[in-house]
Amino acid sequence: MSELFVRFHPDVVLDACGLPCPMPLLKTKQALAGLAAGQLLEVRATDAGSWRDIASFTDQGNHEMEAREQHEGTYFFWIRKAGEAH
After folding, report:
1. Is 45 among the domain residues?
2. Are 24 and 43 in contact (CB under 8 A)?
3. What global pTM score does this model have?
4. Which residues form the UPF0033 domain (predicted)?
5. How many other C-beta atoms can be found within 10 angstroms of the C-beta atom of residue 18?
6. For residue range 9-56, what is the model confidence (pLDDT) as tens digits?
C-alpha cells in the first residue's frame, strides 16, 4: 500500500471512477460543498482530464490539495475544504 494511503484518513471518499469529463470535477465540487471546513475529501477518478481539472480547481480556489497520485489508471486526490475548522 502506498505511503500516502496510510498517511491520509479522509472524512469522505468520492468514487468518481468510470465517470467521463467533466463529471469527476462536478462531483468533487458537490462533495466539498457538503463538508465542513477543514475536513478532508479523497477523490478517486479514472478520467485522465481529472488530473488537470481538479488541480486547476484547487489552485484557483481556496481549497488545499494535500496530495495527488496516480496508480494503475486511477487518479487519487486528497483535498482539504477551505475555511475555518470549528
Report:
1. yes
2. yes
3. 0.89
4. 14-38
5. 10
6. 999 999 999 999 999 999 999 999 999 999 999 999 999 999 999 999
| Residue 34: alpha-carbon gap to chain centroid | 13
Place of cell 475536513: 39
Q: Name, in order, each residue with C-beta under 8 angstroms of 56's C-beta and a sequence gap of 6 or more.
A: none
Q: Active-site residues: which are they?
A: 21
Q: How many domains does the chain have?
A: 1
The whole domain housing 22 covers 3-81
Dihedral sign for Cα atoms in the order 83, 42, 70, 25: negative
Helix axes 23-33, 49-60, angle to 10 degrees: 40
